[in-house]
Every structure is written in C-alpha cells, then in structure tokens.
Amino acid sequence: MSADPSASAPLRRTPLYDLHVSSGAKIVPFAGYDMPVQYPLGVLKEHLWTREKAGLFDVSHMGICWLHGPDHATTARALETLLPADILNLQPGQQRYSQLLATDGGILDDLMVTRPEGSERDGTLLLVVNAGCKDADYAHIAKHLPANVRLEVDDAHALIALQGPRAVTVLSKLVPGVEGMSFMSGRFATLDGSPVHLTRSGYTGEDGYEIAVPNTAVAAAWKLLTSSPDVEPIGLGARDSLRLEAGLCLYGHDIDTTTSPIEARLQWSIQKRRRDEGGFPGADRIRAELANGPSQRRVGIKPAGRAPAREGTEIQDMSGRAIGTITSGGFGPSVNGPVAMGYVESAHAELGTPIQLIVRGKPLPAAIANLPFTPHRYVR
Q: Total structural domains in the chain?
C-alpha cells in the first residue's frame, strides 16, 4: 500500500472490480486504482473477522515483476546493488522482505523478493512492490540491471490475500500441502484448475497466504474462497487497521525517502553478510546508524483515553518541546482503543516514556509502547 498519486490521473481497476461492486463494496480511489474500502459488514467487523476467522483481500493493485538472469548468483548480485537484503543466499522457495534504497539510504519503496521453487538452475526472482510506486520501481530497477539480467513486468496475474487463523484450513482443502509451508516461503500450485504461485505471508500480522492468480481465473478463485463460511471479503479500511495493530509500515506514511531502514526499526531485514560487506545504496549511513544509533526511531504509541491521534499529529515531551510526528494512527479494534506509530528523537524512544500528543490544539497524554500492539501469529 502507498500514498495516492494525483487525483487527476485516470483510475485503474483490478480484475475483481465488478465483483466488489456487486458485493456491495464502497469503492474509493487508492494508489491510482478504484479499490474497495469496505463491504456491507463494515470496517470494524471485517477487522475482527480477519483476526478470528479468515479474510480475503484484493491486492491486485500491487506490482508483480520477475527478474531473469543466466544463474541465481548473477541475478541476486544485480538486485543486491539496489537493496540491503541477502538475496544471494536465498534458497529456492524462500521469500525475503527488503527495501529499494536511494543513494542516501532513504527508502524508495519496500518489497517482497521470492526465489521460486524449481529455480536451482536458473536466475529467476519474483518481486512484489507497492501500487503507488510500481512504475517508478520498474524503471529504477531496469535502469540499474546489467545487460544479462532483464525485468519482466507481470500484468497477467492478479494478487489476492487470504489472511487469518482459519486461512490454512480453508486453503488446504483446495490446495493440499499448503499447511506444510512455513512463514515467508513460496510454491507453485493449482487452485481450481488454474496455475498459481502462493507465499505464506501477508500484511495483517496473522497467518495467511498471498496468491498470484491469472487475471482470467481470479474471479472464479475469489468466489470459490468466499463460498467458505469462514471467509469474508475485506476492504482497505480493515487492511489498514490490521497492519497498524501489527506494527507494519505503510509506504508513503511510516517509511519514505526521508527515512532509513534503521530509523524505521527494519534492521532485522538486513542480514549479517550485507551489513559486513555493504555494496548497497546508502550503506555508509546505514552501517553508521547500526553502529551508533540513528537520531530518530519509529515507535509504537499508546494514547491515553479514547481519542485517536492521526497522521501528522505533533509529538511533544512532557515539557512541551516537539520531539516527533505521528505517521499512522487510528482505532485498534483488537485492542479496543487508539493506537499509533510515529518517529521520535532516539532519546525519547524507550518503552514507557511519557509523551503528549497535540490533538485539536490540546496536549493529550500518551506513552511509547511496544510493537506490535497485537501478537504476530505467523507459522515459523
């Protein structure tokens, strides 16, 4: 997910648009697309349904592309010049989260990289990037690839995400064997007679799967999955509250070109070999921040009371000095209260630190809180 582009740009539609409309979805512009923000169930109930059962999300606005090279080492090293994750040691069927970096270490986008199973002898990588950034991402990646590695944009597949504790039960009846997959792994399979690629991953903090389905078959797959009494279609509203409770970054809000992975507390996504060797954009800055600490850090924030603190809210210390800004905030249905994330000066980032939030011109008490607000339930 990412910030909306100019409202003047013509809006695109996913292959599931007509199904969303016929299901009573409220459609809004998002990242250049007409997307369902909620269904008749409503955002609150959709959120809780996903936490308790299984929600189905249309994420076909995201960008899917493939990198093709003569062998894995060549393709991996080419991609490693653009991001800080260890792609060279990615095993077939393994997925990794990373960030495309600017030369100063700022984040151009975040993305998922999968080395497809069966790629032992070739140099194929599968990338999923954010909707609002995808055209710029494709151009940026292609510009920096060597002559023997090429980027292939995949417009032939839609992407859907089945998320929640009952996702594995629902999907394993249709795709036997998916129950044996671990978090951040991928495989090719057949769903309702169509070839698909799925990963055990998602953007909710729950167990679940993201499934790339041919455009021509995705409506049938959507109907099949939602025919289960455990599955409801879920819109962007609940997707946002779910990811906020899970402490997951939204590009264009919690991370952007002004933030580094270390400031964003994403250092876990930079493996030791890359920290030691460098060789990626902004490596000097990032290694210095790893060694000495950054000047600011992304933190969880728990406002006191019931009033939510929205994006852009000023964060102050208890003396009234501005120390940071809220980047995501709202009501957390699973925690039954307001939750937020933002950046504060590192000296104020310790858990439990009392702060105040300026909401409608008035200081409201809050505290630095642990992330995530609800425990992740990934299958390791």
A: 2
Residue linked to tokens 């809006």: 11
Cβ-proximal residues to 258 (8 Å cutoff; 6+ apart), any chain = 106
Q: Is 5 exposed, middle or buried (0-12, 13-18, 19+ CB in 10 A)?
A: middle
DSSP-derived secondary structure letter, 49: H
With beta carbons less than 8 A apart as the criterion, state whether 288 and 298 touch: no
pLDDT tens for residues 70-111? 999 999 999 999 999 999 999 999 999 999 999 999 999 999
The pLDDT-based confidence of 9 (bands split at 50, 70, 90) is confident
For residues 317 and 372, is the Cβ–Cβ distance under 8 A?
Answer: no
Tell me the pLDDT tens digit for each residue of 190-228: 999 999 999 999 999 999 999 999 999 999 999 999 999
Q: Is 242 helix (H, G, I), strand (E, B) or coil?
A: helix
72 near 122, Cβ under 8 Å?
A: yes
Q: What is the CATH number of the domain that holds 182?
A: 3.30.1360.120
- Nearest Cα to Cα of residue 340 among 357, 320, 323: 357
Domain that holds residue 212: 12-62+156-245
The SS3 call for residue 75 is: helix
In 3D space, the residue among 54, 42, 186, 46 whose CA is nearest the CA of residue 127 turns out to be 186
Q: What would the mean pLDDT of 9-28 be, rounded to a whole number?
A: 96
Give the amino acid at 298: R
Give me the residue label for tokens 């409608």. Answer: 360
How far is the C-alpha of 278 from the C-alpha of 268, rounded, in Å?
15
pTM above 0.90, yes or no: yes
